[in-house]
Amino acid sequence: MAADFEKQSYWHHRFETETAFEWLTSSSAFMDVLAPQLTKLPSDARILHLGPGTSDLHNQLRQRGFLNVTNIDYEPLALERGQQLERDRFGDVRMEYLVADVTQLELKPVHRVAIDKGTADAVACGPADAVLSMAKAIHCCLDSDGFWVSLSYSASRFEGVRSFFEVEVASRIPTPKLKPTDPDIYLYCYLLRPKRDVAY
């Protein structure tokens, strides 16, 4: 049976023992994909890191000089793990950690970037309109030049949000093969730019 990724209880139970895990690909590999977008940003750009879990992606962002990062997860244990990972790496905690549901964000439209690594995939395990709700919430958080970068295993993850986001596959990341004859399987890095003056 598939894991109950949409349930907070699943993540609470998981994070009681899990201290570090990377979804889909390593954070350092994902940072290589993000680099063309991040190099255009000032170091004080406001960044939303959505559903960090026990990834060290936030540390990768800090390593590159981004401190104005808000890590959002609806499981408090994930944020405790994130703070510990930051403290272990840098000796202090300077980023923000916020308990919130990514499908129901209530933040000001001041963020330049939203980033998720597999979070939209987990959200998609919930109700049929969950990814749409997540996209609407993110749309409201981005500033006029903002954008959303999402890493997904799905080649059609964001078909339902094109009415208010310009959706582009920025890159495809090949997954490792166990045998040379295995089929080519990719991860998809999406770049989503919000359309303005749209009605939900």
Automatic annotation (TrEMBL):
Pfam name, any one: Methyltransf_11
Any one GO biological process: methylation
GO molecular function: S-adenosylmethionine-dependent methyltransferase activity
Keywords: Methyltransferase, Transferase
Keyword hit for Transferase: yes
Endpoints of the signal sequence: none
Highest taxon in the source lineage: Eukaryota
Sections of the chain in a coiled coil: none
InterPro entries in the cross-refs: Lys/N-term_MeTrsfase_sf, Methyltransf_11, SAM-dependent_MTases_sf
Domain Methyltransferase type: 48-108
Family under the similarity heading: Belongs to the methyltransferase superfamily.
Protein name (record): Methyltransferase type 11 domain-containing protein
Higher taxonomy: Eukaryota, Fungi, Dikarya, Ascomycota, Pezizomycotina
